[in-house]
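Posted in: Structural Biology > Protein-Ligand Complexes

Title: Requesting predicted complex, FE2/S2 (inorganic) cluster in pocket

I'd be grateful if someone could produce the 3D structure tokens for the following input. Sequence and ligand are given below.
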Amino acid sequence: MSEARQVQDARTAPVLVWNQLKDLTTEELTRWRTDPIKNNRSPEERGINLPMPCGWFVVCYSDELEIGEVKPVNYFERELVVWRGEDGSPRVLDAYCPHLGAHMGYGGKVNGNDLQCPFHSWQWNGDGACVDVPYSKSIPPKMKKPSCERAYHTRETSGFVWMWYHPEGTEPTYEPRTFDEVADPDWSDYEKHEWIVYGPMQTIAENGADTAHFQYIHGVADSPDYDINFDGHCRTAEVYVKMGTPKGIVDGTIAYGVDGPGQPWTRFTGICETLMLAGVTPISKHITHLRFAFTQLKSDRDGESGGLAKAVIKDICKQLDQDKVVWDRQKYIENPPLCQGDGPINDFRNFFRQFYAGEEFDKYRERVAGLTPD
Ligand code: FES
Ligand SMILES: [Fe+2]
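-- Reply #1 --
Done. Output follows.
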């Protein structure tokens, strides 16, 4: 991590986008975060048909999947089914049964560690191989083989179930990061928030490299001055801040990072110990599901500083609301006219292209003249 620099974090709200949100009640704001939006231009007109990146992505929270539970999920422009076997492990398959096409997320049942299709009871293991056809002496040989096209690698860590996405079924090249705080009894249970953003993953991820927007969209007094480190599949940054609190100015540190494209995290220390773990998962090339899960030191959250602890979370969610107003309707500008102070946006885009692969990336390269090859 590079040497962090000191910036001010006094707020100069209201910011312009707040005009779009200020009249919403708390309930309306919560609904707005995931509601479909109206009067939007098509993805083609907005130029946002970027490829979906490869990596580990959140499928659901661990506590949303009991042993023996089956859930339909819709990510990567695919119908998927996730279930938890009796051994406690989650598994993810394409939802459509290869036999006659039933959607196994609706009526499928867990038998041991396998999934039983509701239509004719064929049973599938987590590798996508058929292990039983109850009314037949034989299984079609092709169906007995594991399938890297229909089965997805899964992991479970830090309270999330993860799946590996690669358009060509390539094996994982890194692992999702584990955060010990999540299992530590001194840290609170997750406080969860979510958004559906009508924009591609790359645009959302670019926010951290867009240093100029903090002042104008989020009301930070000065554009923060910090270095972003690009290292393999990770990027990290660390910022020292002075925060105005009910107890006066307090020195704090914000450390943030992203592992691959799908696992951002931010650690706030000094003000109120807070760890935010995010899951960013593509629903499609141009719609993205964002989850923010906060855990805080219980002594901060439940003690005298409880009000401040809640305010930290509220402020971070407010920032996401502010960004979403733009992201939902933003056009993607390839080769943007950047100027001094815009932040390392091109470095970020070059970094992010490492997560693109397959046919969609080829089409994207063809579409975009002058795109730097790998
Ligand atoms: S469609 Fe699944 S077993 Fe027939
Ligand atoms: Fe932002």
